[in-house]
Amino acid sequence: MSISLVLVPAAFAAIAAWQAMRPEEQTGAGGLVVQHVQTRMRDENLLAAALTDTQAVVFRTDDVIVAEWVNVRAEFHRDEMGIWQVDFTGNVDAERASEIVLAIDRAYGGQVQRAVLSRLRDRAPEAGMFIESETVEDDQSVTLVLGQGA
């Protein structure tokens, strides 16, 4: 028996995430413009790794993940459902905030894909299976064919 799994890259999912974003602009203290954006991201470690993938300098406090790029700062904090919300400050408007979130979302999806692949590789032998083949396509989708051990 074989099982084929196709893990689609996050680029396709990013379109849906972008459509779900609702950037809200607000003027903060000292006339500072803040863009508020909701994300679909939940895992703190995958988010931090994704931010690093986008060339951000990342640091954490107790409840906040901060990412800094040239002239842009993002502060991620969780909402009541555990989903990360992000506030952008600096040289950023709604369009730039959306571009940054899409880049983070793609990187986050890549991190999720790598984590799932790692778990599949680790757990296949426990389930009496082995990886017959693994193919990475041009669009970064991965096809694993698992075979059942004797």
Helix content: 25-40%
Approximate strand percentage: 35-45%
Question: Strands of the biggest beta sheet: in what spatial order?
Answer: 2-3-7-6-5-4
SSE order, as H and E?
EHEEHEEEEHEE
* C-alpha-based Rg, rounded: 18 Å
Total helix count? 3
Second CATH tier, the architecture:
2-Layer Sandwich
CATH superfamily: Alpha-D-phosphohexomutase, C-terminal domain
Average residue-wise pLDDT: 76
Please identify the top-level CATH class.
Alpha Beta
- The oligomeric status of these chains comes to single chain
Q: What's the main sheet like?
A: 6 strands, antiparallel
Unreliable stretches (pLDDT < 50, length at least 5) are: 1-16, 18-23
Structural shape: elongated
Strand segment tally? 9
Termini separation comes to: 10 Å
Short structural summary:
With 150 residues, this protein is of the alpha+beta class. Helices cover 34% and strands 36% of the residues. It has a single domain (10-119), classed as Alpha-D-phosphohexomutase, C-terminal domain (TATA-Binding Protein, 2-Layer Sandwich), CATH 3.30.310.
Describe the structure in your own words.
There is one protein chain. The protein is of the alpha+beta class and 150 residues long. It has a single domain, classed as 2-Layer Sandwich (TATA-Binding Protein), CATH 3.30.310.50. It is 34% helix and 36% strand. The protein contains three helices and nine strands. The protein has helices spanning 10-20, 44-53, 94-123, and strands at 2-7, 24-27, 33-38, 57-60, 65-69, 72-78, 84-90, 129-136, 142-148. The strands form two sheets. Strands 2-3-7-6-5-4 form a six-stranded antiparallel sheet, with helices on one face. Strands 1-9-8 form a three-stranded antiparallel sheet, covered by helices on one side. β5 and β6 (72-78) form a beta hairpin. α1 packs across α3 (94-123). It is elongated and about 55 Å long. The model is unreliable at 1-16 and 18-23 (pLDDT under 50).
